Amino acid sequence: MTSPTRVHVESWDPAYGTPLSPDDALAPSESEVDTDVETTAWDPLPGEDDGVDEVWLVDGIRRVEARLTVDTADESTPPVSGICGSHAVGAVRWDRVARRSEVAAVAVERLAVVGGGHLVAVPPMAGLAYRSMSVAGTDPAELVTRFHGSMRTAEARLTADLADAGHFVVADGPVNDTRPRDVVGFIKTHRVAYLSGTPATIIGHLEPGYRSPLFLLGASGSFPRYSWYQRLAEGPAGHRWYGIVRCEVAAAIGLDRAVVLADRTAALLPLLAAPAHTDPRAPQNLVPIGALERHLRRELGDQALTYRALRTALAEVAA
Q: pTM, whole model, 2 decimals?
């Protein structure tokens, strides 16, 4: 048995897991990976600030507010599960000229999701309106998956609208749009090992302001994309992957444009890295994103009051 050379306590609050996702093995990627699309010399590359005036950052939060058990009309079948939850999606604009950020777009949606193909209509409440949805299966995990998918769809819609308006957008999570837009997907949790051998060793040697060369994922699939790694900040006695994030753009944007956006994010995003004392997911949770998340939580309202309102409204339906 071998022992690690050094052991590190993660800077992330344990409630948020860890950027290296120990609950899931960092498994080799099943996607095609082409590491020679930009260069065959795998060395850290410096970012380049091309003077873009503003950056728009998009993120969303979700909250399960009540768990439901629904008796169906067929008494020979067991009750089915459901959830009531809300998600809020928004954008924050980082104005580099004015040196400030402001929340500029917010959308809140509330959903009642029930399994087994059933629908539950939640009566309207003061300031609360839930849309009914269903999933075919009865596994409670499907409910959360459908709920999360609704939030991701709302994030994608807002991201597309901003990009179509001519803005440069950094969106939380993988890119899910195949069209050639100036959108960078920002992935702060690592669950898959995309690189191996010499390219993989580069990641641990990146400095803030530098990035890895681009690599192409899924070239023959339906959604190819260019990706790269970069470090947001150095940590006190941090491990090799401290502050490392992965970014990606749709391959449809073209290699030349992908290089421009990769250089831009490598130069700019370290300027937004959260200091360790200000955010439980520092440095990966960028300062404007942290501010946006706090704003979105306020938009969702008080969870305890929402739960009580749901219990009252649904009790009247059952009666």
A: 0.86
